[in-house]
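User: I'm writing a short report section on ligand binding and want a predicted complex to refer to. Could you take this sequence and N-(5'-phosphopyridoxyl)-D-alanine and write out the structure as tokens? A short remark afterwards would be nice.
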Amino acid sequence: MTRTVYLNGQYLPEDEAKVSIFDRGFLFADGVYEVTSVLDGKLIDFDGHATRLARSLGELEMGNPISKEDLLEVHRELVRRNDIGDGLIYLQITRGAADRDFAYPAEDTPQTIVLFTQSKPGLAENPMATTGMKVISIEDQRWGRRDIKTVQLLYPSMGKMMAKAAGAHDAWMVEDGKITEGTSNNAYIVKNGKIITRNLGTEILHGITRAAVLRFAREAQMEVEERAFTLDEAKAADEAFITSASSFVMPVVEIDGAPVGDGKVGRVAPRLREIYLDESRKAAV
Ligand code: PDD
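Assistant: Sure. The structure tokens for the complex follow:
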């Protein structure tokens, strides 16, 4: 079956969807994106992703070419047309195509909006949830506005390759001795039962999964502290884990080749994963 994608108001077979070589997303990484997961054909945390999309666009003084209602309809239509049970929907909006110039083009330049699906059967049954993942630490060399979800993802890609080369699954990035986040996820440690994760700011992406997981943790009477933590603290933690729309909650059992705690998946991450998946499935649209 050929995948149907969405481009600027049209549903098209993927090989017929074409974007200009002058698109500012292509030339300047002048675009923002979102990734929303789909479980049992329904969207997880759609509202959070749509709200963050609007914020990213606003921070870059970019227009929002689609209403939240229409965006929801496009997501649902793509799920239907591509028969997605479990998977992801990628959305990207750029400032559109214009002759190459660092200055932004005229405000009436049509923006580019693209959505496509990725089918991932069994997305919530990833075996890594029971075995845990290995991370390495690398220097955080990204730009300073990581709270805006832009498509400039080269450094995170490099980080993922560094992790692969080291036999690990991902990299946690470190700035001034403190962990910022993973290449495509938020980072957490657990010490003496307390969940610790970096406070919000321009240094990290404000994860939609992070917001939901912290809310569920507090509702379950778990102690949460939002503050920067060091690499040394992470290495001495009882547990560690990550969150993102594509991995939900995933335990981390090794950092830089050394076991976290006893090197096995602990109790907090699986519990949060279960609560998150249960509650998100119930609230899915
Ligand atoms: N990544 N931090 C970074 C740098 C991210 O790229 C992501 C998401 C997150 C987690 O955010 P959320 O919980 O809203 O997914 C944190 C997506 C999944 C991606 O690039 O594929």
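A remark for your report: Residues 35, 181, 184-186, 205, 207-210, 243-246 surround N-(5'-phosphopyridoxyl)-D-alanine (CB under 6 Å). The chain has two domains: 4-121, 128-283.
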